[in-house]
Specification:
By secondary structure, the protein is an alpha/beta fold. The chain is about 30% helix and about 15% strand. It has nine helices and ten strands. A hairpin with a 5-residue loop joins strand 4 and strand 5. The structure holds adenosine monophosphate and magnesium ion. The site of magnesium ion has 5 residues, from helix 8.
């Protein structure tokens, strides 16, 4: 009981054998990453102020086992906004998150340290290793399970967390500096532009489960989508990195160099986009996303990834 209470306090929700909508078969035996941690933040927002400093109010993360397609562990916390402590009505309507929930939440710096502890637990109990971690050896050992982060668009890690940590001078775990953007991966793998996460699921005949714009439900549904894509033959590769890349990380990003001038690729903003910060984070964008031959099976070859950091709503 006491352990359960501690786990809850740490934002740790352990899940066992909870099935996703993906059939119980081996989903991705050919994957580079044994695990993917799917993150989908919710933040303060207002109907009209698109460029206001946004603060994270919900911090969920789900651990997707790429072999089984199951979610093996979850982390979840509501976070107290400090620059704009009172949620707008619009924000509560959109996300379903109430003033009471955020007031009962924790400040971002505490959430980040709990998140770090969750990651450490995964490292110790499941042999999870991150490609951009400072380590002595370059190759993962037999007991190590490679893991990276996955989000829908580059907004969560490239804009939202990045700028909030900069503004508040908070230390962000280094492992959060590279990730897979599932939206661009989806576009390239199926050669079509999805209409949001829900549209992407619907196109594959999957119904969104739960509440849209709830961070935890969005994360779980993003994980289901990723699992489906892997069972369709998509090999997940890192699409974005904010740090200079080690040889190890480079090898996981892509094998061929890009012939496109990726700097020309603009952050596109249309009326439906509520670009939190239209300027790009000071990142090194990796254009060299290439698919291994397996990725060609379902929806055509993956091409080069385009650099877009805006969130499509
Ligand atoms: P999502 O993951 O799509 O739920 O969006 C993440 C965050 O982006 C939300 O918590 C809001 O802060 C913001 N957002 C999403 N959709 C909208 C919208 N239509 N208008 C304003 N902000 C939005
Ligand atoms: Mg969301």
């Amino acid at each position: 009981m006491a352990t359960k209470k501690l786990a809850r306090e740490l934002g740790l929700l352990q899940r066992r054998n909870q099935s996703s909508s993906v059939p119980k078969k081996t989903v991705g035996s050919n994957q580079i990453f044994s695990y993917l941690i799917v993150i989908d933040f919710e933040s303060t927002c207002w109907r009209e102020k698109n460029n206001y400093n946004q603060e994270i109010i919900e911090f969920p993360a789900v651990l997707l086992n790429t072999r089984t397609g199951e979610i093996d562990s979850e982390f979840h916390n509501y976070v107290q906004p400090q620059e704009h402590p009172v949620l707008s009505e619009f924000c509560t309507e959109l996300t379903g998150i109430t003033q009471i929930q955020v007031e009962a939440g924790i400040p971002l710096h505490i959430c980040l340290s709990q998140f770090n502890r969750w990651l450490q637990t995964l490292q110790h109990t499941m042999g999870v290793v991150f490609p951009n971690e400072q380590r002595n050896t370059s190759a993962p050992s037999a007991t190590e399970n490679m893991c990276t982060f996955l989000t829908w668009s580059d907004w969560d890690l490239g804009v939202c967390l990045q700028y909030e940590c900069k503004r508040k001078q908070l230390h962000k775990p280094d492992v959060l500096n590279s990730w897979i953007d599932l939206r661009s991966t989806y576009r390239l793998f199926y050669s079509r532009k999805p209409k949001g996460l829900n549209g992407a699921l619907q196109d594959l005949g999957i119904q969104f489960s739960g509440r849209e714009h709830s961070g935890l439900d969005d994360s779980r549904n993003t994980a289901r989508l990723a699992a489906r894509m892997m069972s369709d033959g998509c090999v997940m590769r890192i699409t974005r990195s904010l740090q200079s890349t080690s040889a190890r990380l480079k090898s996981l990003i892509g094998k061929t160099s890009c012939s496109t001038d990726y700097k020309k690729e603009q952050v596109t903003v249309d009326e439906k986009e509520n670009t939190v910060n239209p300027s790009k984070p000071s990142s090194s964008i990796h254009p060299a996303l290439t698919a291994s031959p397996d990725a060609a099976t379902a929806g055509g070859m993956m091409k080069l990834v385009s650099g877009c950091s805006a969130k499509l709503y």
